[in-house]
Records
---
Amino acid sequence: MPPDVHEPDLHPPDLHQDVAARLAGRDGRYTGSRRDLIQALAEAGRPLTVDEIVERSPRQRPSSVYRNLAVFEAQGVVRRLAGVGDLARFELTEALVGHHHHLACQTCGAMTDVQLPHDLEVRLDEVLTQLAHSEGFTLSSHELDAVGVCQACSEGEN
């Protein structure tokens, strides 16, 4: 059964309250600019580069985006993904949007969020736990990036 591609409805209705609470411990300020950045990430439904964040939220300057992403990353709001290619991509953490995986294009570097059917996710957890156990490792979570070629690249659009 193929994975289900996420729509941009990953984030719960209280996303901004959750982010504000996480920031209150250190930096304390959840400014309009930071809220716009979080909203851009939430609406994307996929990991974004800094340039893509600025494109979706034009009032943001790249230097401010980098600074805010560093604060968000330190507070467990955002995670950085190496992805394919040279550009880092950023997304909201699973604590905020739920567990998911990625399809990563090896040609253009685009990443798409996908969610496995529940029974397949359970089986994947079981197999990874068995593999970890056989190596004397205790598994706490997993991340899966499936690498291939996106539809746009396979059709020659990029």
---
Amino acid sequence: MTRAKILRATLTLLLTGALTFGHLFYSWSVSLRLYELSGGIHKLPSGWTQFGGARSAWAIPLELPGNAILRICQIYSSSDCQGALAAQIGISLTLLASVVVGYLTAATLVRLVMKQQLSLGRYYWRAAVIALGLIWIPVREDFAPVFQYTVVY
């Protein structure tokens, strides 16, 4: 392995970690703000905060499969679904969205910085996955990730 390949792999790995945590913070903070704007977070006169009651919430499309599995587990489970295999798969898929977006963005940035040929994949699939990891779409309230960490828990 040449030095350039080792440097590229190291930079990609380090940048992937940073961008993954950045994406997690981005998705968490923006989802809270959008949920508040859509009516899901109410500050009561007593000083308390009430969560839920919005007709819809906003979600990142790449996180929807994990959130759907998690919500279906909660609907059809007699308990709160914690520790169930379906819940673990749902949470893993939701977190995997941040890792995928972080990796693809890091790989693209490292190639640009090292002045190598940029490859966005056939039919620009890499660019499409990055875009699907950054945009927001309206979904049913209980299928949005913000519902999981405000209303459910």
